[in-house]
Amino acid sequence: MTTVSEKYLQTVINNVASELHLKEWSFTKKSFENVAQNYFGLLIPINLIGKVCGNYINFPIVLKLAPTDERFRKTITPAYSVKSVCLCHGDIWKENILFQYENNIPQSACIIDYQTTRVSSPAYDLLYLIVSSTSASLRKIHFNQFLDTYYQTLEETLLLCDVEPKKVYSKDMLFYDLKMVGPACLIVANTAIWLSSGLQQEGHVRSKVILTTEEEKEQAENKYREIVSGIIDDLSSYGYLLL
């Protein structure tokens, strides 16, 4: 199995620490009983410790590095350049958010399923959540409000950490990145919606919903087409797809 050099690993972790604005950081490399290496690359568990806003925080993370096989590197290299990156969830949509209710009113939420967490553009998590978890009718009315609420919350959070939002990630930078990540969000949302609709009944990843009749399958396919068509139309109207 091809290994990753310590120099390369140090460079990757340095970039992660920089994007997280960590100070006085250090890391230790852990190990799995079985190290995974495939088309998606090499998985390396890391324990990263650094100071944020004056407090030391421990980040147990798993690095998913680019494939060491040169044949595959160019297939996953981004064809675009975003303005900024950070540690992102990678698969944040309604199926990965648990809500606690009181009297049928949501009081709090918990995000789950961090297996695709990676350093990426924050615009990706934001746009993917919106297009994969809302209806076309809701986006038509509230899309700009969603963006404003996100950025306002980001500003408030950064200011609490004595970080100037406009220097780290301005609203113009966010809007630029939204255009860059639009195609990727469409591709992943399409897969997620197909899977959640019950239409993926073959392969190693299958739908949890079981469709037993042809009528159910037809209804699911029609609903899937309606949802994805709405996403394509909206992304195009926002200028996030060049069709």
From TrEMBL:
Domain of life of the organism encoding this protein: Eukaryota
Segments forming domain CHK kinase-like: 4-160
Pfam families: EcKL
Cited InterPro entries: CHK_kinase-like, EcKL, Kinase-like_dom_sf
The name this protein goes by in its record: CHK kinase-like domain-containing protein
Organism: Brenthis ino (lesser marbled fritillary)
